[in-house]
Fold Sugar phosphate transporter domain-containing protein.
Amino acid sequence: MAKNAGGVLLPVSAEPGKGDGEAALFKGSAMTRRGAVAALSYMSCSVLLVMFNKAALSSYKFPCANVITLLQMVCSTCLLYVLRRLKIISFTNSEPSVPSDSLFFVPFRILLRTSPLSLSYLLYMLASMESVRGVNVPMYTTLRRTTVAFTMTMEYFLAKQKHTPPIIGSVALIVFGAFIAGARDLSFDARGYAIVFVANITTAVYLATINRIGKSSGLNSFGLMWCNGSISRPVPLRFNFILHTS
């Protein structure tokens, strides 16, 4: 829960059993109007982000994917800072454990604890950004759907988590469809495909790290995004400085 300027508690995420009188969109579904709006907003932002990155890196031949990554991190961190300063959102699953005037909003020990997650997030961002450059958008979205196979493999080796045969069959069908689409891709680029699969691996590592570290940190999705941006942002900034001065 988070407090707004008027002191009214705002839910960070929907709690089970509390639909606030909103009717379910489908009979037997737990999705509410708020959840549908959030899902559609996420879908729209994701599509626009891919299109923007593809246009900047391919159509306009922008050479530095790390610069775009840095700017996106700065924008997201600044937005989170403003929302947290106005007490519209919270960074923790419960009431904040640090004063609202704290510089980082979360204890320094939690920043250190989430540093592996932030580093995996940085690798995921850089690989995903670069992977857009070498393939067309339809093939990019198709190949990125195979991320679930890499995630399942990573979860098995890290957490020994096993999935049911229907789930494995569905994932296998997705991977098979991606190979069929790739075989008929007239603009096939081996390097571009390889980078997309590297992006899939880094995404799987990031999701597995969230499962192991994120849940035990006591931070919600806003808090994890804040830690990722705070820790990861200096790395591309330093890298850009070295490139500029060399």
Notes: The longest strand covers residues 2-3.
